[in-house]
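Blinded run. Sample ID left blank on purpose so nobody reads anything into the name before looking at the predicted structure. Input follows.
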Amino acid sequence: MREQLKEHLKETAVSFFIIVTLINAVMLIIGTVFRPEQRFGYEVFVYPLIYGAVSCIPTLLIYSKKEMGVVQMIIRKFVQLVLIVVVVLFAIFAGSPVGVEMIRDAGIVAGSIVVVFVLVNLIQWWLDVKTAERMTSDLEAWKAKHK
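Blinded prediction complete.
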């Protein structure tokens, strides 16, 4: 059990760094397209870290020790995505006056969250495939050595 939790925390840490990197890319693209004239100070560098950490909270909260089937995993990922969208939109827009511009911005941010979520999961899947391939080849080499 302790080993599973340790592995889950490790996967969440990897996710955090992937998320932060992708958030930086999304902020660059969205800022260049929608607000190219806007300039920021150094304090803006903390936001991807905050949003990355906030995005990891649902992952930590919905941790489960039991193996899940494909349908259960898809449902879990969907719930995780919805929670991330809600938490991040709340973190960004809480206290802002509701208006057309805020609704547009929230839609853009929500769409960006979906893109980042999909990319993070694809990158993690690819990393898992590479790890499995390496482990398989190591096991085959060990078997051949110990025949």
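Unblinding after everyone has recorded impressions. The mean pLDDT is 88.
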